[in-house]
């Protein structure tokens, strides 16, 4: 089976590796986003999945826009039996969706129709969902609206972060794809329309999504901290500087006013109105990330200090 993989995010790396290991599949190309400038010096950097693909001799296509006529022609010329899409970052045009002989499948990191969109992993944690998963769906021209082939559920643990859940779902994806491709090859793959009820959306993350609102309460603040770890990272302001928070324990007591530092020994104990959160992993703007107890030795914060804008 000739397979073309369209992917950019690191979450697709285990899927690429699995496809390359199985003799039944020939990965005819990786289609990924163009290299982007990264860091202080804006050094042009390829997606990790491009580097991985090239190391195995897989041809790589990097069109700026997959809707461009020449890009569509390139994908059609691959003569893929199946196109597999995961965390690519662009809406695919109809001509690309129809370029596969059998199906164009998307591996989406949620249990659709809940959390359609670009950031389903962080949204599930922030909302307090108890489970999520991988949905294998037939792609259409909508935003994650295609018919479902299968779903694999994954429980969200109490201490789950955006990073840890990302990695677990990445490892779950190849198994889900294996079952889906086997059914396609047998000709008995189901096709179930998504229900109209339960649709939610998770838009693309920006740095602003990490801004902490202490009025949301201690449970919601702690969830946001976990969801936004490692990127874009939950953050507040301390003396006008951005203070990132990578770990915070929710506490029903003590009570304090919103954003007020109640204590600063083993961490920053911050009031949320209905309780508090103990922030234990911090990074001040321009400094390195470190445990709060260590950070506080060099940056003492007096009780009563107000955090936030």
Q: Strand portion, in percent? A: 25-35%
Which CATH-level-2 architecture of the largest domain?
3-Layer(aba) Sandwich
Q: What is the CATH H-level superfamily of the largest domain?
A: Formyl transferase, N-terminal domain
Overall form: elongated
Query: Can you write the helix and strand succession as a string?
Result: EHEEEHEHEHEEHEEHEHEEEEEEH
Mean pLDDT: 96
* Biggest sheet statistics: 7 strands, mixed
Identify low-pLDDT runs: none
Total domains, how many? Answer: 2
Distance between the terminal alpha carbons, to the nearest Å? 56 Å
Looking at this protein, list some descriptive labels.
Methionyl-tRNA Fmet Formyltransferase, Chain A, domain 2, seven-stranded mixed sheet, 309 residues, single chain, 26% helix, 17 strands, alpha/beta, Rossmann fold, 8 helices, 2 domains, six-stranded antiparallel sheet
